[in-house]
Amino acid sequence: MTPEAVFPVPLDQYPEMPGAGLVEILAARVLHEPFNLAASAIFALAIVHTFMAQRFRALSHDIEERHAERARAAGREPEPSVLAEILHFLGEVEVVFGLWAAALVPTISWYHGWPAAKHYVNNTVNYTEPLFVVVIMTLASTQPVLSLAEGALRRLAGLGGGGPAAWWLAILTVGPVLGSFVTEPAAMTICALLLSRQFFALGPSPRLAYATLGLLFVNVSVGGTLTHFAAPPVLMVARHWDWNMAFMAANFGWKAILGIIVANALGFLVFRKELLALRRPEGAGEIASPVPAWIVGVNLAFMAWTVVNAHYPALFVYGFLIFLGFAQATAPQQGSIDLKPSLLVGFFLAGLVIHGGLQAWWISPVLARLDAAPLFFGAMGLTAFNDNALITYLSTLVPSLGEAAKYAVVAGAVAGGGLTVIANAPNPAGQAILGKHFEDGVSPLGLLLGAVGPTLVMAAAFLLL
């Protein structure tokens, strides 16, 4: 058997230990495959790096300013500081997991040889989701799609007076639920772009800004649960457990909608005074010119093609390449198509799945030892440190998981999907779009504090209803 054929070690090849405690099981798996400990240590360092990213950016800014001051004092024109640029690069959250993959791959080679490392990265890891997010995020950010979404939400916000507070409620309530039909990454992109234009551009306080970001991430995470194909953590289990659209709507969807409404209402009550005090300058936030209906229809058709073929990258990437040609031909109506944010998000997710695929050795036994209620909170907690789609996927590998446990792990995973930027696949897209509105970028602690309240509301909705 070739080295790459047995890496990573399949879960069913670890020694069975009936009656053993969790620590004993994990210790035995490390002895069986010492690389496990190295892989998880590198993954832990990458997570720590995400929490340190803001410090790298702040340090980069300080070094750049001192470098420029020294240049001006010497009578020279300031040039970019190499050290500052490197630190700024290290402070980009979207590149963190990709950077640490550069440490992971040599480590695989050290333990198992280059053929195993090459086979794992190229043949074992599935990059369909990162590719899909790049394409759908780009399509959803085009001016025709935004024009359609903004027009619909404008009418809804008009029922509340059309002010920033009405826009805030409309986007955070309706936008995430659209994720059940256009997929969560597309919903995140649309909501984030509209919030940037209609809310964040007005300069809310940091406390309200983080509360809004937390609401957005949590709402999008649960907003895709009305169907079985739109939310990545649901998609991972739907085929294995025969969950269809009717099942999702009856067991998750209505609870998610109620939770979104309650969380938004509570957020509005807490920040009512500031929300109502926000004022938009005359003419700000308006679309420059209407987009012809036929162009909107073509863009939506490309989105539909991408969603329908979400599991077939050759097909949706092919469609995307054709779209780029169409976008060039209709450039005045498409607006500026900036591929950098979507490519960075795709890089983030690709790095995450490379690392995440090597964490099953400890996550699977943790999930297997929990009853329904502890499993809910365990999945919610693990989601803060892993993509929630990985958590639910690993639950499909746990034999004889009961129906209550299946519900608990998925409900916990989607409820906790807003706690960190790595908790849910669409979150990096939201951060990439809205990060410019936060001084020195989005703080992981600020996001966590902003998301705790909505997360508890969603937990109550899924556990008590």
Keywords:
about 475 residues; mainly alpha; about 0% strand
Characterization of the model:
With about 475 residues, the protein is mainly alpha-helical. The protein has 2 domains: about 100 residues, no CATH class; about 325 residues, no CATH class. The chain is built from 23 helices and no strands. Helix 1 runs antiparallel to helix 18 and helix 6 packs antiparallel against helix 14. The longest helix is centred in the first third of the chain and has 39 residues. It is globular and about 70 Å long. The N and C termini lie far apart (about 50 Å).
Form type: globular
Structural class, judged by helices and strands? Answer: mainly alpha
- Provide mean pLDDT, rounded: 89
Unreliable spans: none
Tell me the domain tally: 2
Beta-strand percentage?
under 5%
Question: Strands, helices and their partners?
Answer:
Elements: H1 22-32, H2 35-73, H3 82-90, H4 96-112, H5 114-124, H6 128-140, H7 143-158, H8 164-182, H9 184-198, H10 206-223, H11 232-241, H12 245-270, H13 272-277, H14 293-308, H15 313-329, H16 331-334, H17 339-356, H18 360-368, H19 372-383, H20 388-395, H21 403-415, H22 427-434, H23 444-464
